User: Which sequence fits this backbone?
């Protein structure tokens, strides 16, 4: 039975609910409530980000369900590396992918746990979106990551400058709520 704080982190409105498989796995692992809160926040940001991109750039091809699952599970490896909940570290990345696969998640979805902190020209649009959501939820803007995303929007048929302005304005709006998100996450114990 999950702790009441974990259950609250997984269900409190007004955030979008996690995909059921992700929420069930966090319960099974008895994840720290703050980790569950973090995953809900990044998932919620990814939900908002992808909803707006789908509306504003319908030619941008990507798997929205994969992005949302990736955002909901990207840090799940911190259940086995809890020291990385409050400090730096990358051990949780590969551990998270292995943990997801051990619980029946396909490698194509489990990869987000390992790839969310690394991106380059060869990253998929899905990988870029998970990485952007994991940065902008706390108000952090990463120019080279955002440029890669704007390049994808450009490749989907949007003028280069318009693509940059679209991505910039969307992320600026999302980043504006960072203080409230950080406070909500901080209200949960590690």
Assistant:
């Amino acid at each position: 039975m999950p702790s009441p704080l974990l259950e609250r982190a997984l269900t409190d409105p007004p955030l979008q609910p996690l995909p059921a498989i992700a929420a069930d796995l966090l319960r099974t692992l008895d994840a720290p409530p703050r980790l569950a809160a973090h995953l809900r926040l990044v998932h919620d940001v990814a939900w908002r980000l992808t909803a707006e991109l789908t509306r504003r750039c319908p030619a941008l091809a990507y798997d929205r369900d994969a992005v949302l699952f990736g955002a909901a599970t990207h840090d799940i490896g911190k259940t086995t590396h809890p020291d990385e909940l409050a400090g730096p570290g990358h051990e949780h990345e590969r551990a998270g992918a292995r943990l997801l696969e051990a619980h029946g998640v396909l490698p194509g979805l489990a990869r987000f746990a390992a790839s969310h902190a690394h991106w380059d020209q060869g990253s998929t649009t899905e990988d870029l979106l998970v990485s952007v959501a994991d940065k902008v939820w706390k108000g952090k803007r990463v120019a080279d990551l955002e440029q890669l995303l704007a390049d994808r929007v450009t490749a989907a048929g949007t003028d280069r400058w318009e693509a940059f302005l679209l991505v910039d304005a969307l992320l600026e709006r999302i980043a504006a709520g960072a203080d409230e998100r950080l406070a909500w996450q901080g209200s949960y114990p590690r």
